[in-house]
Amino acid sequence: MASSASYPPGGTFFDTLKKSFREVRVDRNQDNAISTSEFLEAAESLTTLFDVLGSVAFTPVKNDLIGNIKKVRDRQLAAPAESENLQALVINEIKTKKHVAAEGLLWLVRGLDFTAQALRHNIGSSTDELSVSFRTAYGSTLKPHHSFMIKPIFSAAMSATPYRVDFYAKLGADQGKVESELRQWLGALETQVSILKGFQERKEAKW
Description:
Number of helices: 9
Radius of gyration: 17 Å
Number of strands: 2
Distance between the termini: 46 Å
Strand content: under 5%
Largest sheet: 2 strands, antiparallel
Shape: globular
Order of helices and strands: EEHHHHHHHHH
């Protein structure tokens, strides 16, 4: 069970993603506008990484991401012409005196930032176990915003991570290929998270 079905023969886990963050369009000529549909598909694909981590303790983390993706998508479906990119979706929703999707995106970005920081820390520290990397990332992303009731649930997930050698083996047999594809995927994710965090600090993105 530990090593089965996370990747196709000769490939890596990243080959199984319906949409990669590397494929998400970011319009540099339109204030780094990020395609709503593509970003949400990439975020949904990312949640399968928590299945690879293998513990039911990560179910609340995964469900949190999925729930926030739904809030953003519901707004997109309700007003598609005003929601082609994430920034427009947020600004146009706030104009209606609502912020369900805007708040959902805020928490989604926090969750994606948590995941990105954990993986970046881990590939940059070859001796650290995943539990160390995820705890470090949690402390600087989600934890400051979580209530005392939620913190223990997420902390339990941090302690339930597999050994790093087992985790990376689940991503692919060719570890050189795994690292290369992870770095490319992670770099695209980090870029989009950074763009959205900057946008969310702007006056028009606040409610």
